[in-house]
Structures are given as C-alpha cells and as structure tokens.
Design a protein that fits this description.
The chain is mostly helical. The chain has one domain: Up-down Bundle (Hypothetical Protein Ta1238, Chain: A). It is built from five helices and four strands. The strands form two sheets. It has a two-stranded antiparallel ribbon. It has a two-stranded antiparallel ribbon with strand order 3-4. Helix 1 (about 30-55) runs antiparallel to helix 2 (about 60-80), helix 1 (about 30-55) runs antiparallel to helix 4 and helix 4 packs antiparallel against helix 5. The radius of gyration is 18 Å and the shape is elongated. The chain starts with 15 loop residues before the first strand and ends in a 6-residue tail after the last strand.
C-alpha cells in the first residue's frame, strides 16, 4: 500500500526523479514525460467526472472512476524501469481494453450515425470530454515515442488508443442524453 508522509523530499532538486525500482532519471526523460502525460489525462478526467457528478450522468461517473484507477495503474507501469518489474505487479491487459470497447458499444446504442465531424461543445461536460480526448491522444503519442526507444507494454498503447475512442463516444452520449444537438463541422463555413 502507498504511504505518503511528506510532500517534499528535496531528492528532485537536482532535476532527477526516482523510478519504481530505484533508478534515477532526469525529469525531462521520455519515460517521465510519458507518465506525466497520463497524469495530466487523469487530472482532466477528474474534471469531467466532477461535471458528470454535477449533471447526474451516473453511467459516466462510474466509467470515469474506473478509468482514473486504470490510469494510475498505467502510470505506475510506465514509472517502472525496464527490468524492475516484480511478481504481482499490476499491469493493463486485454480485459481492460475489452471493457472500454463494451462501454463504447453500450453508449453508442441508439445514437444516430454521424454525417460530419463533430465540433466540441453543446454542454460543459461535452466540451470537457473532448478536452479529455485530445489530452488522451497526446498521451498516446508520447507513450508511442517512448516505445521506440524503451520497453513499453503494447497493452498500454492499445488502451490509450481505445480510451480516446471511448471519450469521443462519451461526448456523443452526453449530447444525446441531454437532448442538445451536436455541433457539426461545415467545411468552408467561415
């Protein structure tokens, strides 16, 4: 279990941080950047979850809560230096991605097919979910870059890819749930 007694340790004052397993790396290393992007994603998901609670979108609250926990597991996995894995380490796998796909299918039931790209907005929660989607895509790109030079589980990359799809589905679900029309892209309108 995690135990945090002190907020500051002064160990990072030299521009380094410790990975799981004890290795020290610079704070601007691609590995740290990757789990930092996932941490930012988790933060904006917390915002979307708070809006979901306010707007009584219980399905989204439950799904976002589960995803936030998954993202902490992913962050831990990314913060573990290759070769420092241990028996019983929590990792993301096929079952996690399958759950995201199940949620996508469920959320999209009864929602009309798109005939254009969607512009974010309509409700505050819809816009927040689109921000989450774009932050997720950035995190995915960062983890993908890391995977070109260091060991990264392919399950993490797949999960982030599917999560961005789910966040798009959630935004569409939110518009449908509230009866707000989706803003559609009209090419050349301006």
């Amino acid at each position: 279990m995690v135990k945090i007694n002190k907020i500051y340790t002064r160990q990072g004052d030299d521009g380094t941080t410790g990975l799981v397993g004890g290795a020290r790396v610079t704070k601007d290393s691609m590995r740290v950047e990757s789990y930092g992007e996932v941490d930012e994603l988790n933060s904006v998901l917390g915002w979307a979850r708070t809006l979901s609670e306010r707007d009584k979108a219980q399905t989204l609250v439950e799904q976002l809560t589960s995803i936030q926990n998954d993202l902490f597991d992913i962050g831990s996995e990314l913060a573990t230096a290759p070769g420092s894995e241990w028996p019983g380490m929590i990792t993301i796998g096929d079952r996690h991605t399958a759950q995201l796909e199940k949620w996508i299918d469920s959320l999209m039931e009864g929602i009309p097919e798109l005939r254009s790209f969607v512009l974010p907005g309509g409700t505050e929660l819809n816009a927040a979910l689109h921000v989450c989607r774009t932050v997720c895509r950035r995190a995915e790109r960062c983890v993908l870059r890391l995977s070109r030079t260091e060991q990264v589980s392919p399950h993490v990359i797949i999960y982030l890819n599917r999560l961005s799809d789910l966040l798009f589905a959630m935004a569409r679900y939110e518009s449908h749930r509230t009866g707000k029309p989706e803003y559609l892209w009209v090419p050349g309108k301006s």
